[in-house]
Every structure is written in C-alpha cells, then in structure tokens.
Amino acid sequence: MNARMHARLSANALMPRDGDLLAALDLGSNSFHIVVAQCVLGQLRVVDRLRETVRMAEGLNALGGLAPEVRDRALASLARFGQRIANIPPRHVRVVATNTVRQLRVPETFLVPAEAALGHAIDVISGREEARLVYLGVAHEQPPLEGQKRLVIDIGGGSTECIIGKGFTPLERESLQVGCIASTRRFFDGGKLSRKRWNTALTEVSAQMQQFAATYRQLGWDEAIGTSGTHKSIGNICAAMKLTKGAITGDAIARIREQLLQAGNIDAIALPSLSEDRRPIIAGGVLVLEALFATLGMERIQVSKAALREGVLHDLLGRGGADDPREASVAALLQRYGVDGAQAHRVEATAMLLFDQVAASWKLNGDDRAMLSRAARLHELGLTIAHSGYHTHGAYVLANSDLAGFSQQGQRFLAALVRAHRRNIPKSTFEAIPDRLLANARRSAALLRLAVLLHRARGDERPASLQLKADDDTLTLRIDKRWLQSRPLLRADLEAEPEDMLGLGIQLRIMAG
Questions:
Q1: Which CATH class is domain 143-305?
Q2: What is the largest distance, in Å, between two alpha-carbon atoms of the chain?
C-alpha cells in the first residue's frame, strides 16, 4: 500500500459517521456564531444555533492591539460556546477567526486565552479563504442552477468578501478591508451623519472596489446573493418600508441612505425593523452596499440565510476525504511549479514510514501525518525559482499564497517544514507556529529531513531494514550497514546530520548494523 493510499484510509477513519455531531464556529468581527449539526445519511441536519454580539472590531486600535474590555467580552462568549460543544470530539469541531484577528499585531495574545476559554483550537483564515467558505455555505444551502453563475457578497464587521462562482466552485474571490463596523468608525466618527461625509466615504470605498470591478462585470453573473447580518437587516428594512418584499435594490438603498442622512446622527436612526444592536453599525453597512451596487452595476440582490459558518460546516464534512480542498491546493501547486512527482512520492513514502514508527512515542496525530505528507510532496517547490536556497523560496511561497482549505497557521506549519528540510535551521523558522503546534512541527521537520536525505540520489531504493525509534527528543535511526557503506555520499550526509538536527532541539543517533 503506498503512502498516499494509507494517508487517505487513515483520514477516512476520522471522517464523521452517521449520527455524529459536528460544530462550526465563526468568530466574526461583529458577532460570534456557532452551528451544530448531525450527520444523517451523509447530509447535515442542523440541531442548534447560537449567536452573540461581541463587536471585536470595535476594540481594534491602529497599532493592532485589542481593547481589554472587548477582549474580555470575547473570552466570556467563547467560554459559553465551549460549554455547548464540550462533548463533541475536537476532530468534528472547526473554529475560524476572521478579519479582526487577522489585523492583530500579535494574534497569539488573543488566541492563547481564547483557545483556553473555548477548549478548542482556532484557525485564523485569510480573506480569500473566508470568501471560499462563504460561497460554499450559500451553494449548499441554496443549490445553484446548472450552468448559472452567481455573485455572493458578505459584508462583515471588518471586511467584505465578494465571490463569483459556478456550481460549488468559486471562480473569483476578493476580500476588501471595509465592513459595517470598520466603515462606521472610520467615516462617521462621533456618530455624525452628513451628506458631505457620506459622499467622501462613498468615493473612497468605491475606489477600493475598482481593482476588481471590471473583471467581475466582464465575467458576469445570473443572480446576486447577500449573506450575513448586514444584508439581513437591510432586507428587513426594505420589506418594512414596503420598498421590496425582502430583496435589496439600488432604489431601496438610496431611500434608506436618505433616511439615515435625515437622522443626522447614528443615535437618532429610526428605521423600521432595525434592531438595537444593529443600529450603531448600520450606516457603514449601507455605505458599503451602495458602493457595491454602483461599482459592480448591480440591480438587485437576494438575501440568504447561509453564511460563513455553514460553509465551515460543509467544509468540515469533506476534510480528510476525496474532496478535501487542501489536497486540491497541493495538487495545483505541484502542477504550477513543475515539481518532480517521482521524487516527491519517494520522499513522501519514506516520511510516512518513519512517521508511523515514531507516532505513538512522539504523540503525533493524523493531522500531523497529513501535513508531513503534504510537505514531503512540496519540499522541492522552490526549485522552479532557483536551486540556491530553494527551501527558502518554497517556504515563502507556501506562507504567502492563497491556499484553499488552509488556515494561516496551517500554511505556516507547512512552510516551516519545507524551510527546515535541509541545511541549517534558523531560530526564526518556527517563530510563527503557535505554541500548541510547535513540538509536533519540529518533530515532523526532523522526519522530513531524514526522508529527504535518504533519497538525495533520487532513487527508489531504500534499505530493507530501516528502523526509527523516538525517546523524548532523541531519535535513533538503525540502518543496514552494507547498504550504507555502498553509498558514501549518503553516509557523509548522515554523519553530519546530528549536528544540524540540534537546530530542531532533537538529538539524532545513527546506528549501522
């Protein structure tokens, strides 16, 4: 059985079964959401939803810090959410954090206590990955018509995602640094609403959208769908004002804008059906939506109940299986950068062999195995750029690309393994790895280094007896003596490796016999 097949079987064993509960948590810039669903005949049946208004974006300052009162509010909310999902296995829970956490100068200062309060790991996702998941949620909740394209827009508290897709596949994804909270704070400071302020803000927000507007208009769409709280609130206002039956049109937006300007101040806004918790931030949401209507040439947008959390839930159902988006991202990188597939698979097979021998001793899990498998296939990614320092080039690409399915922490984990797979290991290599992943990242890097060394000659052969044992941070590699003696270059590499591996905090012993 080859390494890839073994990895798939191991992942499938962890996939949800009929009757299992899954939970998705969306830590947005305005609200925190949780949705719990049960697997029923391969489908998801929602059994519970929770929402709390936290307004993380309100606490974000210009230096990338988070106000203590907002931090405490968020941690208290996460503690309550943690009680709800305490009995769901961690592999069936996924928590994603969006724009506000992305903007923190030192995210770990929030993430460490947040993960402790919740009792689960938190993935920070990029804006484009957020866009992919939003589209996935809408596509599953409102299946698209065959052959039709749709535009999906999500106006959050700190960012706005715009996606054009066909079927269940996004074709274009964009994430803008404008949202209902951020725009209200920026353009209507002090709560004052005036036509001059509005027009200045509209010009500035529209200018940000011009970078992709022409591409979107040229690609076109058959229907437009808005998701999350801003669209729902504006749709309710449209219906209450009898402007539409719940959809949003350009004319309706103009009428609502005039009502806001007549109010003169955010505290004086009195739009029908507008909730108290939405009133302080509705102006920024209407502003962003008006700019989108103008720059994209939209006429009408329907409102969807689905959002990021539903996308996370459906993505969780497919992770580890044939439809895992992370595997598709790896395959795309292999093709785009012309990676030598034969060498990649040799290194992967040996890395998996070594992993399986020490996984129990080192307490490595299925996620670690999958990440090592991907790093093994991608370790020569940087050769397309240059042979000199190719491990550094490859790590940069992995850390800074938009890779569907990966969190920011996941990409940094992958990048660290590729950066550390050869030569010396700078102290900065693992700086971006969360503490909870650090030990396993270093240990996985050690396994990748050995697998790469054993196949430096780019041959399929491997010693008949290759045994690796782990005892705390000591590795003992037993290798056939005759086999090794016939390969002087490999012998020299292995003799030098113990010193290099000290950079991972691991002591390596080579025993030939």
A1: alpha beta
A2: 88
Q: What is the pTM of this model?
A: 0.92
Domain boundaries, the chain: 3-124, 143-305, 324-512
Domain 324-512: give its CATH superfamily.
Hypothetical protein af1432 (1.10.3210.10)
How far is 246 from 250, CA to CA, in rounded Å? 13
Closest alpha carbon to 421 in 348, 479, 369, 362 = 348
Amino acid making up residue 137: G
Nearest partner of 366 among 5, 10, 9, 93, judged by Cα: 10
Q: Torsion angle, CA of 71/97/227/60, rounded to 10 degrees? A: 40
Helix (H, G, I), strand (E, B) or coil at 62: coil
Element (H, E) at 315: helix 308-318
Q: What is the pLDDT along the chain (513 residues), one digit of tens a residue?
A: 454 554 444 545 557 888 999 999 999 999 999 999 999 987 899 999 999 999 999 999 999 999 999 999 999 999 999 999 999 999 999 999 999 999 999 999 999 999 999 999 999 999 999 999 999 999 999 998 899 999 999 999 999 999 999 999 999 999 999 999 999 999 999 999 999 999 999 999 999 999 999 999 999 999 999 999 999 999 999 999 999 999 999 999 999 999 999 999 999 999 999 999 999 999 999 999 999 999 999 999 999 999 999 999 999 988 877 779 999 999 999 999 999 999 999 999 999 999 999 999 999 999 999 999 999 999 999 999 999 999 999 999 999 999 999 999 999 999 999 999 999 999 999 999 999 999 999 999 999 999 999 999 998 778 878 999 999 999 999 999 999 999 999 999 999 999 999 999 999 999 988
**SS3 state at 186:** helix
Element (H, E) at 468: strand 466-471
CA distances from 367 to 78, 320, 409 (A): 24, 9, 13
CB-CB neighbours of 386 under 10 Å: 10
Topology match between the domains 3-124 and 143-305: yes
The DSSP bridge pattern shows strands 21-27 and 93-97 to be parallel
Buried b (16+ CB within 10 A) or exposed e, 469-479: ebeebebebbb
In the structure encoding, which two tokens stand for residue 382, read together? 């940087």
CATH topology (fold) of 3-124: Nucleotidyltransferase; domain 5 (3.30.420)
- 210 token code pair: 């011009």
Backbone angles phi, psi at 267, to 5 degrees: -65, -20
Residue 168 has a CB neighbour count (10 Å cut-off) of: 14
